[in-house]
Amino acid sequence: MNSGHSRAIANTCERSQNKLQMIAEMLLLSCEARPLRSCFSSHIVSPSYLHEKISATVKTIMTLMKAIIAHVHMISTKWLEICEGLQELSSTTIGLIELCSHTAYLVAVDFPGCELAEDGLVDRYSVLLSGLEIKMSCNRLKRARVEDLTPQLIIDLCSNISRHISVITDICRLAGESVTDESTSDQFKLCVKSVTCAAGCLIASIKSYKSHPSHTHHSRVIVFCEPVLAASTALVGFATEDDFTGKQALLTSKARDTQKAVLGSCMSIVSAVIQLCKTVRDLVYDVMKTQHREKLHLCTDSVERASSRLHDTLEQHSISERALELCKVKNDEENSKNEVDEHCDSYHSDSTSTSTVSGSENSGNSMASR
User: Fold this and answer.
1) Which PANTHER family match (predicted)?
2) Domains along the chain with CATH numbers
């Protein structure tokens, strides 16, 4: 098997495994009782929709796992399909983690004596997730071989870094405007400025490397990854302090046990997917070993058992209509706010354009009079 193809599969396995582990730690192993804004969809208006969505996502995971296992028998020729399958499997599993985390919260707060979570100035998961995306993209830039940094990969990594820095800075800018303490507000502003400046230097270096690939420009990219990592890590740490992220739901012991049952079943599915990634990576370097192929089938069996437990747990408990409605209201408020912001941006843009045109006309008249 081509060494470049082996490296591509191994690197995809490692990235998928690391990302799944980090997100599982954020949402499953932490057992935090919070709703997820990423699940505040207007489509999620009933408990049955959530159940159906989780079941459909698990089925997709099973289908993707079986497709990867089928391709493994032709690993030397199907390396590209395996890489794409692993990436899709990873993103689908992350979707399941988010759904189960949100559903576990809705199930838990339906128990008598529980109190709903309170929102803070900062959406904790969004900031942590964007921080993780920036870290993974920067590390990939630092560790990639020069011959592996294709123009398309550079564009993808640069876009990912820009997008997630925008997410973090937008959230933190709004938080800085909302806090009452002046020094805290200044801290948010300085942190945002630090991240945007560091990111600007990195993106300029990436563009230089893309235009003129050389070891000098490649070294420059590696050098400017460090300040972006440092500044974004500091901002994420500061923004996710308890003072800014609101309060978790107050749960009774019975509610907490039920929440853990949902999260635990989901974690079993995630563990099986992570094990599949590890096994495919091992298989790349030792194709002849039958033990690796047997492990792959054990992974699918584990997902089937865990999905059955998850289904049973959700069938036994109801979802809080009150919390679900509150999520929908917050989603509507967020959409309304975004529409207002877009309208204001459009107004300011039109005003700027008008003043620019007026300025040009005045300048033209002045030149004509001369």
Assistant:
1) TALIN ROD DOMAIN-CONTAINING PROTEIN 1 (PTHR47133:SF1)
2) 1-118+251-324 (1.20.1420.10), 120-246 (1.20.120.230)
